[in-house]
Specification:
Layout lengths: L2 H35 L2 E5 L5 E6 L7 E4 H15 L3 E8 L3 E2 L2 E2 L3 E9 L5 E4 L1 H4 L4 E5 L5 E10 L4 E5 L21 E6 L8 E15 L5 E8 L11 E3 L5 E8 L13 E5 H14 L3 E4 L2 E6 L1 H7 L6 E7 L4 H4 L7 E5 L2 E2 L6 H5 L7 E8 L2 E8 L1 E4 L1
Antiparallel strand pairs: 1-2, 2-3, 4-7, 4-9, 5-6, 7-8, 8-11, 9-10, 10-11, 12-13, 12-15, 13-14, 14-17, 15-16, 16-17, 18-25, 19-20, 20-21, 21-22, 21-23, 23-24
């Protein structure tokens, strides 16, 4: 090659390099401008299970979310809690009918050991009306249990076994839950599929469900983890392996007939802990007691019977020597408020009364013969 051709070749290389360098500088400037306008850049590594979020600031810290770690946490949580979960089988005695006695029935649900002394926490509706109780451990053995006590209004009950306890669950703090947090439901759907595991998130907290019995269950945790008949009484667990709620019900149909999916509800473990402690210590849960039988009033009831109020409770009976009788309440009185709270669609009588304790003095607003009156009464104590 002549020296002229060599010189031309070198000059071409220099020009090409300069263009590339210029392009790199220009491209880098454009990327800088784009990145500076965004809050962060998400970089997906070759592994599909890992996502890195890199903040677009001078701080080079990287937040890594590894789904493999989440799956491992779920597995470990189930391994930790699973042995403490039991299937509850309650035998409901047959009834005498016109055609003769009916056979015994069984109700199945789930439960969880909360004490090495053999105490098991479950739902009241799982064992309601039963006279015999058995629990089936995760490893398959079956043990007889006795009923310690129940609480209808929180839908909780405590059973006890005298045999060796396989494991005791760790109870967490339900007040620390946040929507979006991963949770795990463990239980025995349909009574046959023991220790079934489903996973979801905390959809919301502080939910209220009307029981249709004149009161609502308040403060519930909503989750989309699958809950079916038989899951009732089983634990809802966080990724730390702590029980943060007791699964209680699933809503699938609205009042308009709309079918819903993923609407599960659980009782916060802080509530369940307080209730179970009272049941274990006293055999019942202390509730404020007024001493009346009543009929809840709704706008429909008010229209049918031409009552003077839309909401409240109509007193149908007053127990002798009760706080109500001592305060002068009568059959036919309508209670419309307790202290400064008016009874309405969102303030049921029982839920409002349960804001107080035995021994508290409250002022009842009542309607009697078309006139509004106020009556002071000191609440007694009753075990539910």
């Amino acid at each position: 090659m002549s020296w002229k051709k060599l010189l031309l070749f070198v000059l071409a290389i220099i020009l090409l390099g300069g263009s590339a360098l210029f392009g790199a500088i220009a491209g880098g400037f454009i990327v800088y401008r784009l990145v500076s306008q965004e809050q962060s850049v998400i970089v997906v590594t070759p592994s599909p299970s890992t996502v890195e979020v890199i903040p677009a600031t001078s701080n080079t810290q990287t937040l890594t979310v590894n789904t493999t770690d989440v799956e491992t946490a779920i597995t470990q949580a189930v391994q930790n809690v699973g042995p403490s979960v039991v299937t509850v089988v309650a035998t409901i005695p047959g009834q005498q009918t016109f055609f003769g006695p009916t056979g015994d029935e069984t109700s199945t649900g789930s439960g969880i050991f909360i004490s090495s002394d053999g105490y098991i926490l479950t739902n009241n509706h799982v064992i309601e009306g039963a006279n015999q109780y058995q629990v089936i451990y995760a490893e398959g053995s079956q043990q007889d249990a006795t009923l310690v006590g129940t609480d209808q209004y929180s839908d909780l009950a405590v059973l006890k076994v005298t045999s060796t306890v396989p494991a005791v669950a760790t109870l967490g703090n339900s007040d620390a839950l946040n929507p979006g947090e991963t949770v795990i439901a463990i239980g025995s759907p349909l009574g046959d599929f023991k220790n079934t595991v489903t996973v979801g998130v905390v959809s919301a907290t502080g939910r209220s469900i009307d029981t249709g019995l004149g009161y609502s269950i308040d403060g519930l945790i909503q989750t989309d983890a699958a809950i079916n008949q038989g899951n009732s009484g089983g634990p809802l667990v966080n990724l730390a392996g702590e029980v943060i709620a007791i699964n209680t019900l699933m809503v699938r149909n609205s009042g308009t007939g709309t079918v819903a999916e993923g609407l599960g509800f659980a009782i916060p473990i802080n509530t369940a802990r307080a209730v179970s402690e009272q049941i274990i210590q006293k055999g019942y849960v202390s509730r404020p007691y007024l001493g009346i039988s009543y009929q809840p009033i709704t706008p429909r009831v008010a229209a049918i019977y031409r009552l003077p109020v839309q909401y409240g409770v109509y007193i149908t009976d007053v127990a002798a020597n009760s706080p109500a009788s001592q305060a002068g309440l009568q059959v036919g009185d309508i209670i419309t408020g307790i202290d400064n709270t008016s009874l309405d669609e969102t303030h049921a009588y029982i839920n409002t009364l349960f804001q107080y304790s035995a021994g508290d003095m409250v002022t009842l607003t009542i309607m009697r013969n078309g006139s509004q009156n106020q009556v002071q009464v000191t609440l007694g104590e009753s075990g539910s």
